[in-house]
Amino acid sequence: MLATVEHLYATVRRSSVSSTPAPRLPIFLVFCKVMRGRPAIREDAIAECYGFRRSRHTAELSQTYMKPVLRHIANLWTLMNHPSCESEWTLDEKLQAIREVGFDGVCGAASAELADGIRRYGLIFVGGMASANALEFPKLLGDLKDAGAVHINVQLGRHDVLTPEALELTLVLMQQARQLGVSPAIETHRDTCTETPEKALALVEAYQQATGELLPLSWDFSHFAVVKHLLPDQFTKRLLTRPDLVQHAQQFHFRPFNGHHVQVPITRGDGELTQEVCDWLPFAKAILSCWLEGNRNNGREIFICPELGPVEGGYALSTFRNSWEEAKILRHEIDRLWADALADVEPN
What we know:
- By secondary structure, the protein is of the alpha/beta class.
- It is 47% helix and 12% strand.
- The protein contains 14 helices and 8 strands.
- The chain has helices spanning 2-15, 24-35, 43-49, 56-62, 91-100, 112-121, 137-146, 163-180, 197-211, 221-227, 235-239, 243-248, 275-294, 323-345; strands at residues 69-75, 105-108, 124-131, 151-156, 183-187, 217-219, 251-253, 301-305.
- It has an 8-stranded parallel beta barrel with strand order 1-2-3-4-5-6-7-8, surrounded by 4 helices.
- Helix 7 packs parallel to helix 8 (163-180), helix 8 (163-180) packs across helix 9 and helix 13 (275-294) crosses helix 14.
- It is globular, with a radius of gyration of 21 Å.
- The model is unreliable at 1-62 (pLDDT under 50).
């Protein structure tokens, strides 16, 4: 364990080197922030390796506020046929635009071209896969890992997959993912084994009974809202029924919706937000507040995708504004909501 600690400590120290030598303690604190969350290595063990031994330094560490981190993730689907079918941007142009407007990463299926572009632009890659066949899992997961993914969004099974089969698929998926060192999350999505709240929660309960663990979900609440025919003032009460699962999750699809449409237009013709989006924003804030209640001081990342589909994908209607332009505006609104929610839980 000491060798592992020393190797990682050296890595952090190298990344912190400047023209002025840094004091040892701040480097140690930065290192422990990196290490926090690794269950196999405790802070006191790290401290003892470097001679601190539960001193005032470790006490100072325990009082350090570790702000959770929002990662804005763009979906390549949003840029389908952008700016037009006749002159669609190349993948390189799309990735450059994603980086330039402030997104931290991109979500999609694996490809060699995408992996190269992600590395060149310094983007996070959240992998995406859809399968109802466990025999496909090794290649899908392996390709996504090779492309640089750690977190993976999974659309699992089909609409007619019942809980026993869904559990079998999930157990295989999670076992293979652990072997590869990647972190899949099951998306709540129509035409999958999680297409209704009841089916999703049945899978969660079966998985917890089988493993003793909470199932990581990738939350897309738009599908449940449509299935349940909800009004905006019902969103929080009816959709945030399991705060523990929301707080356990790291992947969220923030696509504004109402009880009849999984995607509503973001802006009106004059550029102002639509009434439908204004009705949705309080729920989006409630999601963030709920998540932060369980992650207010652990430095954990949350990956939020303003996943707006284009007209070609069937989500946007022909009268909607350009999906990429709308996603950029939505990213700004999410950033604002995050700042507000974070301010509510930050220590004074």
